[in-house]
Amino acid sequence: MKLQFQRTVKRNRSLDGLKYILIVFVVLGHFIEPSRYDNRMSCFLYSFIYSFHMPLFVWMSGYFYKKRGFGEELRKIIPLIEVCIISHIGFALLRDGRLSVGNMLFFGYTPSWYLLSLVYWRLASSLLFKYVDVRKLLIYALVVEIFSFVFINKYGGLLSLMRTLQFYPYFVVGYMMKNRLGNMNKYGKIILSGG
Question: 106 pairs with which residues across the strands?
């Protein structure tokens, strides 16, 4: 009689719930986007949602990131790159009706920007986390984020570089908090009552 062992992973229900809420906010944000300039309530709700939902998504990506060497990370992200390319081609065809060098390099208003940025964050982190202290890396990432706000066109979507640089600090913070959420859950009521 063979015994089969199942690997059980203890899920963090709070993070699962947060993912669900963020997905609902993404759908709601995209739904009200066309009316955000015509209606004050839509404008407020849209601004509210976009003030936190993407930073939290990036934070969660950093939190769940598993540190690997560059070669191993490169092998692991190939499926992510494939999905990014296929979805980006689909969105470019829907938006412009044709493919061109310009619309293939532009990741401004399609959801595929997040996938491409995630590829950059994971590859960069596989190198940077190995050679740079993570606290120093956070400081460097914040400085680069500030410079990117100043010097990169606000709506520049070229290969998703602007968003990659501007959201990377959230990825780093998520990684830094990987083993610290237990303390937050333990003292959550105290933090909320004092906050």
Answer: 158
Q: Give the integer Cα–Cα distance in Å for 31 and 39.
A: 13
Q: Where are the domains of the chain?
A: 14-51, 67-175
Instruction: Give pTM, 2 decimals.
Output: 0.84
pLDDT 10s digits, 90-124? 988 988 888 988 889 988 777 899 999 999 999 99
Tell me the one-letter amino acid at 33: E
- Given the structure tokens 């609902």, which residue do they identify? 24
Would you state the structure tokens that stand for residue 73, as one six-digit string? 């990370």
Query: Residue 83's closest CA among 54, 61, 51, 114?
Result: 114
- Cα–Cα distance, 191 to 184 (Å, whole number): 8
Helix/strand/coil for 158: strand
What is the rounded distance in angstroms from the CA atom of residue 70 to the CA atom of residue 130? 10
What is the rounded radius of gyration, in angstroms, for the C-alpha atoms of the chain? 19
* DSSP letters spanning 107-150: -SSSTHHHHHHHHHHHHHHHHHHHHS-HHHHHHHHHHHHHHHHH
